[in-house]
Design goal:
This protein is α/β, with parallel strands linked by helices and about 220 residues long. It has one domain: P-loop containing nucleotide triphosphate hydrolases (Rossmann fold), CATH 3.40.50. Helices cover about 35% and strands about 20% of the residues. The chain contains 7 helices and 9 strands. The strands form 2 sheets. The chain has a 7-stranded parallel sheet, sandwiched between helices. It has a two-stranded antiparallel ribbon with strand order 8-9. Helix 6 links the parallel strand 5 and strand 6. The radius of gyration is 18 Å and the shape is globular. The two termini are about 30 Å apart. The relative contact order is 0.17.
Length: about 220
């Protein structure tokens, strides 16, 4: 879908940022806009790897900072992924919003984070910040949960579930975005999050299944 066709549905300042970098919106992106991305709706985006889920999160974050003057949290499962996302966001938006990463000492209150628009953190670190009663928690407008299917993981799942539950209880006008390529029960999870469900099978490269034997690959029809 051409980006220009969604010009009227995208806030002007955000459209101006996108137009030089993006010419077309991928299915999960325009479906998210249609289901209320810029109207503060909770969304659960369940689409294949590299299908454009991160841009959905970026749009919600920019909208929260520019139009609602709120703080945004991007939750990831691993410190390495936090570093990767931090570099990506700094590359594209470092001159537009203040971005911080917080994934280290879980006993630190990190007061300095009050000065940042976007904070990228692991679920364990953010759980600690909530429990330390960081004064800026009430300023949060958008929370993005990357790899949200890890709610089902024995090690990280309980902490992530507690974080989501606490946020929903503490912040009444919170917009939640869950991102995943692999959710076994998306409808059930969307209901728990009170979120609109975005499902799509589009991927940039077609996935084929085959068997390699004797230096040859036989693909399934």
């Amino acid at each position: 879908m051409k980006l220009s066709k969604y010009k009227k549905k995208i806030p002007e300042r955000i459209y101006d940022i996108l137009k030089d970098r993006i010419k077309e919106l991928r299915p999960c992106q325009y479906k998210s806009i249609d289901k209320g991305l810029f109207k503060d709706k909770n969304l659960l985006v369940c689409t294949p790897t590299a299908s454009g889920k991160t841009l959905v999160a970026e749009l919600a974050i920019l909208n929260a900072v520019f139009h609602d003057h709120g703080k945004c949290i991007y939750i990831v499962p691993l410190r390495a992924l936090a570093s990767e996302k931090y570099k990506d966001f700094k590359k594209f938006y470092g001159d537009l919003i203040n971005i911080a990463i917080s994934s280290g000492d879980i006993d630190s209150k990190d007061y300095y984070l009050r000065d940042y628009d976007l904070i990228i953190a692991t679920s364990e670190k953010f759980d600690s910040l909530i429990r330390h009663k960081a004064p800026w928690i009430e300023d949060i407008k958008v929370v993005v949960i990357d790899e949200i299917h890890l709610l089902n993981a024995p090690e990280r799942g309980p902490t992530l579930e507690i974080v989501i539950t606490l946020l929903k209880d503490k912040i009444k006008k919170l917009q939640l975005l869950g991102l995943s390529a692999t959710i076994g029960n998306p409808e059930e999870l969307a209901e728990w999050l009170d979120a609109k469900l975005i499902l799509d099978k589009w991927r940039p490269v077609k996935l084929k299944k085959g068997v390699y034997f004797n230096n040859k690959i036989e693909f399934e029809e």
